[in-house]
Specification:
T-fold, 11 strands, ApbE-like_sf, UPF0280
Length: 245
């Protein structure tokens, strides 16, 4: 059954053609330049997603503990590249490798699409890969927080390619040990941004801990920006510009 992801309207860009690709649990919303869109491109993305998922699924059959690990995990020496990417991001962040899966897939799909379109946005369950030749605004959804729908990230072309990944303890089905309404992490590596978003969100046990979560994210090499929202509290760090939504 298809689930309408209304939050997607917060990142869609009017000058791009957006389309969806669904393979198994992977549900992508993709934007490319209008003149670069074609039905063949949709099929190409579907193939790319399968090329990401099949090695990952086959690896999990051989090493099922990888799927359930909630802390950094030692993978097999012959693990495929996507598994190595997820495991390394998770090791840096201090979480299990599946915390990086959505960002890793978004990044891999996005990097291939940049061969076809100079402007690309790939969203995978709230985790985004973005490359742009123009200023972009990405809306922030933070559940019932008073900040929800009122703020957007403004991203300049020189700051892309960029991963923009979101975790929440109150919105969606992703596992979080915290109660943050939104944790947004920026990094050139979407896999790392995804893992650090999870790790930072786990730290937020009450609204007063937003600054602690941001400080943690700031300590991770490769993270360029962090935003944490919990109810009526917000903390921000790094190369990150907020504007009214």
């Amino acid at each position: 059954m298809y689930l309408e992801r209304t939050y997607r309207y917060r990142h869609r860009q009017e000058d791009l053609i957006h389309f969806q690709v669904v393979v198994g649990e992977t549900d992508l919303d993709i934007g490319v330049r209008r003149e670069r869109f074609s039905p063949g491109l949709v099929e190409k993305v579907t193939q790319i997603v399968r090329q990401c998922r099949v090695p990952l699924e086959e690896y999990i059959k051989r090493d099922p503990a990888f799927l359930k690990a909630h802390t950094p995990y030692d993978i097999l020496p012959d693990a495929p590249p996507i598994v190595k990417e997820m495991a390394e991001a998770a090791r840096i962040a201090g979480v299990g490798p599946m915390a990086a899966v959505a960002g890793a897939i978004a990044g891999r799909v996005g990097r291939v699409l940049t061969r076809f379109s100079r402007d690309v946005i790939v969203e995978n369950g709230g985790d985004i890969y973005l490359r742009s030749t123009r200023l972009r605004r990405i809306g922030i959804y933070a559940g019932d927080s008073p900040f929800s729908h009122r703020l957007a990230l403004e991203v300049r072309p020189p700051d892309t390619p960029l991963g923009i990944c979101t975790s929440s303890g109150t919105v969606g089905h992703s596992l979080s040990y915290g109660i943050a309404d939104a944790v947004v992490i920026l990094s050139p590596s979407p896999a790392l941004a995804d893992a650090v978003a999870t790790a930072s969100g786990n730290l937020v046990k009450e609204p007063g801990m937003v600054e602690q979560a941001v400080n943690f994210a700031a300590s991770i090499p490769g993270v360029t920006g962090a935003l944490v929202i919990c109810r009526d509290r917000m903390a921000v760090w790094g190369r990150l510009k907020l504007v009214p939504s």
